[in-house]
C-alpha cells in the first residue's frame, strides 16, 4: 500500500486522506483530529483519491515487490486499506453532517425567535395605531399642528415686516446723510472759494503795504534831509526846530499805530479762518464716524 498511496507525514503509517487549507498540509484522520483539536477555525477537506496516489508506474510498483507471487496479496491489502479510507471518509462526512446539522438547528431557532419577536412588535404597533385612531386624537393632533404652523407663520411675517421697517428707516437715514454730505461739500467748496479770494485780497494788501512802506521810507529820508537843512538854516530866521521834531515823532507814532492795527486785523482774520477750518474738519469726521457705525 505504501507503494501506491501517500503516507501521512506525521505518523508515517496511515495514508494522508485529509488536507488542511490553512496549514497547507496533508495528514491522516487521526493526526488531523490531534492537530486541529485546538485549531477548530481551520478549514479541512477530504483529499480526492486521484491525489492520494503516488506518481509511480506499475512496473516500478511491481519491481518494488520482491516476491511476484504475492502480488494478489498486495492488491488485496491495498483494497482493504482503500475500504478503510472510505470508512474514514464516511465517518468524517457523518461528523461534518452532524456539525452542520447542529449549526442549522441553532440558526433555525434564532430565526424563529427573531420572527416571533418581529411579529409581536408588529402586533403591538397595530394595536397602538388602532387605539390611537379609535380615540379620535388624530384630528386633534392635526388641528394642533395646524395652529402651531399658523402661529409660526404669523411670527415669521411679523419678523419680516419688522426687518423691512428697519431697512426703510436705515435707507431714509442714509438718504438724509447723503443729502447732508452734499450740502456740506457745497458749503466747503464755497468757503474754499472765499478763502482763496481772501488770500488774493491779502496778497494785494500786502503788496500795497509794502509800497506804502517804501513810500514812507522815502518820505522819512526826505524829512531827514529837510530836518538837517532846517537845523542848519532855520535858527538863523528865529524858527524853533524842536517843534518840527515833535511833529515828526507824532507822525511816526501814528504810522506805527496804523501798522499795528493792520497786523492785529490780519491776525484776527487768520484766527477766524483756522477756527472755521477746524469746525469743518470736525463735522466731516463726525459724518464719517456715523456712516461707519451704520
Instruction: Compute the separation of the termini in Å.
Output: 106 Å
Going across the major beta sheet, what is the strand order? 2-1-3
Q: Which residue ranges are poorly predicted, with pLDDT under 50 across at least 5 consecutive positions?
A: 55-69
Cα-atom radius of gyration: 65 Å
Please tally the helical runs, counting DSSP H or I stretches of 4 or more residues. 6
Please bin the fraction of helical residues: over 70%
Shape: elongated
Written overview of the protein:
- By secondary structure, this protein is mainly α.
- It has two domains: 18-134, no CATH class; 183-293.
- Helix content is 80%, strand content 3%.
- It contains six helices and three strands, in the order ββαβααααα.
- It has helices at residues 29-35, 49-52, 58-64, 71-134, 137-237, 241-293, and strands at residues 18-20, 25-27, 44-46.
- The protein has a three-stranded antiparallel beta sheet with strand order 2-1-3.
- Strand 1 (18-20) and strand 2 form a beta hairpin.
- Mean pLDDT is 76; it is low at 55-69.
Amino acid at each position: 500500500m505504501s507503494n501506491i498511496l501517500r503516507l501521512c507525514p506525521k505518523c508515517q503509517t496511515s495514508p494522508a486522506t485529509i488536507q488542511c487549507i490553512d496549514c497547507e498540509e496533508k495528514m491522516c484522520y487521526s493526526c488531523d483530529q490531534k492537530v486541529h483539536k485546538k485549531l477548530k477555525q481551520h478549514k479541512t477537506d477530504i483529499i480526492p483519491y486521484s491525489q492520494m496516489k503516488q506518481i509511480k508506474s506499475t512496473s516500478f510498483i511491481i519491481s518494488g515487490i520482491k516476491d511476484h507471487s504475492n502480488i494478489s496479496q498486495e492488491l488485496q491489502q491495498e483494497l482493504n486499506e482503500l475500504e478503510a479510507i472510505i470508512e474514514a471518509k464516511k465517518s468524517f462526512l457523518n461528523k461534518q453532517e452532524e456539525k452542520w446539522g447542529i449549526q442549522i438547528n441553532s440558526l433555525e431557532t434564532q430565526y424563529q425567535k427573531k420572527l416571533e419577536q418581529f411579529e409581536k412588535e408588529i402586533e403591538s404597533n397595530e394595536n397602538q395605531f388602532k387605539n390611537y385612531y379609535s380615540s379620535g386624537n388624530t384630528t386633534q393632533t392635526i388641528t394642533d399642528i395646524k395652529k402651531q404652523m399658523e402661529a409660526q407663520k404669523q411670527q415669521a411675517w411679523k419678523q419680516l415686516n419688522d426687518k423691512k421697517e428697519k431697512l426703510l428707516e436705515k435707507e431714509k437715514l442714509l438718504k438724509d446723510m447723503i443729502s447732508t454730505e452734499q450740502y456740506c461739500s457745497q458749503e466747503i467748496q464755497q468757503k474754499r472759494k472765499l478763502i482763496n479770494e481772501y488770500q488774493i485780497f491779502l496778497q494785494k494788501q500786502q503788496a500795497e503795504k509794502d509800497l506804502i512802506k517804501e513810500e514812507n521810507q522815502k518820505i522819512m529820508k526826505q524829512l531827514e534831509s529837510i530836518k538837517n537843512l532846517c537845523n542848519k538854516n532855520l535858527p538863523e530866521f528865529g524858527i524853533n526846530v524842536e517843534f518840527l521834531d515833535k511833529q515828526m515823532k507824532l507822525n511816526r507814532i501814528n504810522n506805527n499805530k496804523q501798522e499795528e492795527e493792520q497786523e492785529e486785523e490780519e491776525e484776527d482774520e487768520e484766527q477766524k479762518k483756522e477756527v472755521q477750518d477746524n469746525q469743518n474738519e470736525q463735522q466731516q469726521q463726525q459724518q464719517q464716524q456715523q456712516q461707519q457705525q451704520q
